[in-house]
Amino acid sequence: MKLTVVSLRAEDVAQTAHFYRDVLGLPLAGQHGHIPDFNLNGTYLTIIKGKTAPESAMLEPRFPLLALEVTALDEVVTRLRQHAVELPWGIERGETARWVMFFDPAGNLIELVEFGQIANN
Fold first, then answer.
1. Could you give the number of structural domains in the chain?
2. In 2, 8, 14, 109, which residue has its Cα 20 to 30 A from 50's Cα atom?
3. N- to C-terminal Cα distance for the chain?
4. Where does residue 52 rank: exposed (0-12), middle (13-18), buried (19+ CB within 10 A)?
5. 3-state SS string over 78-118?
């Protein structure tokens, strides 16, 4: 089996799609009606109209709704900060990875992770 589609909900689909395309730099594959699709190496991320879970429901335990692997976390963090995206926990580190979590414009908790980094870096 292979993961094919991941759907995120947003009340303002256009604003959220703009964030994923223009802030995170995800490639827009197309749009079916009012549903934008982003192609992530054969897995599609879609943004559909709807309410997200309240932020407080995602804080304990703090676990992202979506995690994306990046190769240059520092560059992406710089871009997020340029767009005034709040990074409530900053860059976090583990034994083999660094990551950052934030809320997208719709309130979904998102994580960007860079593997191969040592906790002391």
1. 1
2. 2
3. 36
4. buried
5. HHHHHCCCCCCCCEEECCCEEEEEEECCCCCEEEEEEECCC
**What pairs with residue 103 in β-bridges?**
109
The reported pTM is 0.88
- β pairing state of 5-10 and 43-49: parallel
* DSSP reduced 3-state for 22: helix
* Residue 120 domain-assigned (yes or no): no
Segments forming the whole domain that contains residue 27: 5-115
**23-56 confidence digits (pLDDT tens):** 999 999 999 888 999 999 999 999 999 988 765 5
Q: What is the pLDDT of residues 76-119, one digit of tens each?
A: 999 999 999 999 999 999 999 999 999 999 999 999 999 985 54
Q: Which residue is associated with the tokens 């997200």?
A: 52
Neighbours of 46 (CB within 10 A): 18
* CB distance 26 to 40 below 8 Å: yes
Place of tokens 């414009």: 105
